[in-house]
Amino acid sequence: MEQESVVMFFESLQRLMRMMRQSRPWEVDGLSITRVQRFILSTLTTQGPCTIGQLAERLDVRPSTMSTMVDRLELAHLVRRKTSPDDARVKIVELTDEGSAIVESVRSTIMRELADSFTQLTEAEQHTFIELVRKLSDILQKQHEEN
After folding, report:
1. Whole-structure pTM over 0.85, yes or no?
2. What's the chain's average pLDDT?
3. Quick one: CATH architecture of 2-146?
4. What residues have CB less than 8 Å from 89, skipping those under 6 apart?
């Protein structure tokens, strides 16, 4: 029964994530943003400025591949590269105002859509769901850190 529950949870989570990805309006002002570009923009939003190496590590790609990805975002004026104040050889990638505005616009839309769905749960269901997701996230994080 335990294995069956894990499979049911995994399949439900995959379906939820797929539905959320498919409904995301990552086209703003005629600019289409790929899933990888979305990851980079979201990472810079949550983590702040990063080096190419740090971004490459998070996406598990070579720094040269990440550099090409950042080039495209830079051409679209969504990010900029700055020289590190600590080491002139290191470039720091940060969001531009335009990049921040796009991320905020898309996140606002996502939050509205999620709120519309989430409010269909009772307050008790919402609370239970949040607590269980937090607990599972904490368990997975601890396991990840131990490995």
Report:
1. no
2. 88
3. Orthogonal Bundle (1.10)
4. none
